[in-house]
Each structure stands twice: as C-alpha cells, then as structure tokens.
C-alpha cells in the first residue's frame, strides 16, 4: 500500500515510465512483479499505472489495504453502506482501521491537489464510518444467532 500511495501522490491514475516506477518500488521495498501479481498495478510496454477502483475486483481487495479501500469507495458510492459491509468489508474486518487511516491520507492528498471529485470518495468512508461499524456489528450478531440457537437445541 505504501508504494500505491506514493505512486498515486506522484501520478494519480496516470501512467509512469517503468524506470521511475522501479525506483519508487525499490525505495518502498516491494517488487513491481509482486504488485502486478496482487493486481494493483498494470505494467507493460515500458509503463506502469495503478488499477483504478473500477478495474479492481472484490477478490483483489484481499491483496492489500489499498485495493480494499478502493473497492470500499467504489461500493459505497455505487450501492451504499449496507451492501458494502455485507458483501466486502465483513470478509476483511481485520483491516478496517487501516482502511480508515488510508482514506484520511488519500483525502488529504486529493484535497491538496484540488481533486474534489476524487476527494469525495475518500471523505465518504470517514463520513459513514460509525454506520459501517454499526452494520458490521449487526451482521456479526446475525451470523452468531443461528449457532447459538443450534446449541440450545443440542442441550
């Protein structure tokens, strides 16, 4: 995720020359091959670019906090909090604090660059954070109820 943030801060969603990306990946101690295999970048023909939130899949969200946060923004804007929690975040609940921290960081980057539309997506995570946690707690409670009921019948 550190590489993705640095690249995003430098180029946004634009392409960068492979050599420049290689230098950045070396500085962040991660290989471009690993990032490509994790499906957070696309590389070829001497260029590298971050995959945007529409190009990432929900399966990619498990690869790193960057991908999870981008898919969270995507689903929050497309379907709302409940859908996002039930179909994405509940599977990655252990990464939620990191998602929130990263959204703050990216909001600050986009705000400084006056990328208003992009900043709104990151701000949305923070705006609905308490609702995200509430829905997550509700979904976990629902998942536990059938097990508790089964245990009652077994006694």
Query: In what range is the share of β-strand residues?
Result: 5-15%
Query: How would you describe the shape?
Result: globular
Number of helices: 8
Percent of residues in helices comes to 55-70%
**What is the topology, as strand order, of the major beta sheet?**
1-3-2
Order of helices and strands: HEHHEEHHHHH
| Mean pLDDT, all residues | 92
Head-to-tail CA distance between termini: 48 Å
Overall radius of gyration: 18 Å
| Major sheet details | 3 strands, antiparallel
Regions with little confidence, pLDDT below 50 for 5+ residues = none
Number of strands: 3
Structural class: mainly alpha
Could you describe the 3D structure shown?
Helices cover 66% and strands 6% of the residues. With 155 residues, it is mainly alpha-helical. A 3-stranded antiparallel β-sheet has the order 1-3-2. Helix 4 (65-79) crosses helix 5 (81-87) and helix 5 (81-87) packs across helix 8 (129-154). The mean pLDDT is 92.
Question: Which key phrases capture this entry?
Answer:
155 residues
SSE layout:
Blueprint: H1 2-11, E1 16-17, H2 18-27, H3 32-37, E2 41-44, E3 47-50, H4 65-79, H5 81-87, H6 96-112, H7 116-127, H8 129-154
Antiparallel strand pairs: 1-3, 2-3
Helix pairs in contact: 4-5, 4-6, 4-7, 5-8, 6-7
